[in-house]
């Protein structure tokens, strides 16, 4: 089950823990994760980038795009964290450089992307030294990291927008699309070092030998290839031997994952000619090295309406080669597991008259959130990205509806039959409306809402749905039905359900420690 947290004097304390931590309600999500054996940073995520239909800002050639990535902090500050390489003469670039970011489940990590056309006069300058104000904007986009990793194939395509300001207004124009693909970096530290060479490459130039380089890509489940490594260009060489390349096993998935090794002839206009390619895994490449025999390159060729692989005399050689699966949270997401958020709010009289400023339920006309609204927003903001329909069951307890007895589990939206509301905004609106349609009463009983959540979770389990439920209970006081609550928790312990209790106000929540054991 979950942990109990107390917001006392601006501090969040894990009742079942040994130390207090400073922060806000999102810290409660972190405590929930730790209670499930998951600590803080869940994974390292590697982001790959490509774009299509970029705007052409050059007169005599195509744009030379570079992508810059920023992170937006909680206080609104924007920090640059990464730059790709510059791709020459391309309106549909696939960048080689990857950005690795620590993925935090408990935080909404907002990413900003800005594509620039690097001016020709700056192409020989290192990208980190480029002054962005001297480059032309091709468009920008933004998203949360959670939006990428929750996609079935972990790829998210965004419209690139260029903001145009005029005297009368500011409007946006669409200029192509940016695709961001996420791959989880596993803990393996195994790296394969290879020295690759080719023999008898076919010339693609009329008056000189070819200028070859290799691009190594991995094939992902969706069938697309993601470039992971590129060699240097060797001038005028039909029998090139490139400098060693290094591939971390986490970059390619495993030693048996298919790789595509493509040999190109470099052209300064950006239209590189494919000389030939092979498709082999790292394990296959190790065998090629051991056998000292090369692998013939092939070239896809259109024959009538069919595409056939033409075997070439050119060969790829591997001159040198040197070298427990733990399922993560993202593995479950990739497998189709969905988190479902539920919330229950304490409407007992100890919260104070909602119409008075000293009440924990007071709705400030200035828009300042009360403690309940903060807890709903900060926890819900994190979990909503993992809930596909974003329709959340929302209940209240400890209040007397108009002309009715005290209820310890009533639908926050006022409906007799339907408990769900749409989005975090829907919870907020239902909560505000309920304050004017019920009378605060008591006592503080958790058993009813826990049983209600357990019923939903058990029905989902019976339907074999891949869902996991998180119930957030927000309360200002110590639970009255302690034994009933313990019984409800034990009964629900085998269900796909965790319960997160956030305490607000100045009450002593130490008695709830028993619920965490």
Automatic annotation (TrEMBL):
It is a lipid-anchor. The keyword Manganese does not apply. GO terms for molecular function: calcium-dependent phospholipid binding; metal ion binding. One of its GO terms (biological process) is cellular response to calcium ion. It is found in: Cell membrane. Residues 25-158, 174-298 form the C2 domain. SMART domains: C2. SUPFAM superfamilies: C2 domain (Calcium/lipid-binding domain, CaLB), vWA-like. GO terms for cellular component: plasma membrane. CDD domains: C2A_Copine, C2B_Copine. It holds the Pfam family Copine. Keywords: Calcium, Cell membrane, Lipoprotein, Membrane, Metal-binding, Plant defense, Repeat. Belongs to the copine family. PANTHER family: C2 DOMAIN-CONTAINING PROTEIN (PTHR10857:SF106), COPINE (PTHR10857). This is C2 domain-containing protein. It comes from Gossypium mustelinum.
């Amino acid at each position: 089950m979950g942990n109990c947290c107390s917001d006392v004097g601006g501090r969040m304390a894990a009742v079942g823990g040994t130390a207090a931590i400073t922060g806000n309600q999102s810290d409660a999500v972190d405590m929930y994760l730790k209670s499930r054996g998951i600590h803080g940073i869940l994974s390292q995520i590697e982001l790959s980038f490509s774009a299509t239909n970029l705007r052409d800002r050059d007169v005599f050639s195509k744009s030379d795009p570079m992508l810059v990535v920023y992170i937006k902090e909680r206080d609104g500050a924007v920090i640059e964290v990464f730059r790709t390489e510059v791709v020459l003469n391309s309106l549909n670039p696939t960048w080689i450089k990857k950005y690795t970011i620590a993925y935090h489940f408990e935080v909404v990590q907002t990413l900003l992307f800005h594509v620039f056309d690097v001016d020709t006069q700056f192409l020989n300058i290192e990208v980190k030294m480029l002054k962005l104000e001297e480059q032309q904007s091709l468009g920008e986009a933004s998203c949360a990291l959670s939006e990428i990793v929750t996609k079935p194939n972990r790829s998210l395509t965004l419209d690139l927008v260029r903001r145009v300001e005029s005297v009368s207004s500011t409007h946006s124009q669409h200029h192509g699309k940016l695709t961001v693909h996420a791959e989880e970096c596993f803990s393996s530290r195994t790296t394969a070092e290879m020295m690759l060479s080719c023999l008898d490459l076919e010339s693609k130039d009329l008056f000189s030998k070819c200028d070859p380089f290799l691009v190594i890509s991995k094939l992902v489940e969706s069938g697309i290839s993601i470039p992971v490594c590129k060699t240097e260009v060797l001038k005028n060489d039909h029998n090139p031997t490139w400098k060693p390349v290094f591939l971390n096993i986490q970059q390619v998935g495993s030693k048996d994952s298919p790789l595509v090794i493509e040999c190109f002839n470099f052209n300064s206009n950006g239209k590189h000619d494919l000389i030939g390619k092979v498709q082999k895994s790292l394990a296959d490449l190790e065998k090629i090295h051991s056998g000292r025999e090369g692998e013939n390159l092939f070239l896809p060729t259109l024959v009538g309406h069919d595409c056939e692989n033409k075997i070439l005399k050119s060969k790829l050689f591997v001159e040198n080669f040197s070298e427990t699966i733990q399922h993560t949270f993202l593995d479950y997401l990739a497998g189709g597991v969905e988190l479902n958020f539920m919330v229950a709010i304490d409407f007992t009289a100890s919260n104070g008259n909602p119409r008075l400023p000293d009440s924990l339920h007071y709705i400030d006309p200035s828009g300042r959130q009360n403690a309940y609204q903060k807890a709903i927003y900060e926890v819900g903001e994190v979990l909503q990205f993992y809930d596909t329909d974003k329709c959340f069951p929302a209940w209240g307890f400890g209040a007397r509806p108009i002309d009715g007895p005290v209820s310890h589990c009533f639908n926050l939206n006022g409906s007799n039959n339907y408990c769900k509301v749409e989005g975090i905004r829907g919870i907020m609106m239902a909560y505000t409306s309920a304050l004017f349609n019920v009378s605060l009463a008591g006592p503080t009983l958790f058993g009813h809402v826990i049983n209600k959540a357990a019923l939903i979770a058990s029905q989902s389990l019976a339907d074999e749905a891949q869902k996991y439920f998180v119930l957030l209970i927000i309360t200002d006081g110590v639970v009255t039905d302690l034994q009933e609550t313990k019984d409800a928790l034990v009964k629900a312990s085998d269900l796909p359900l965790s319960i997160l209790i956030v305490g607000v106000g100045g009450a002593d929540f130490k008695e709830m420690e028993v619920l965490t054991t």
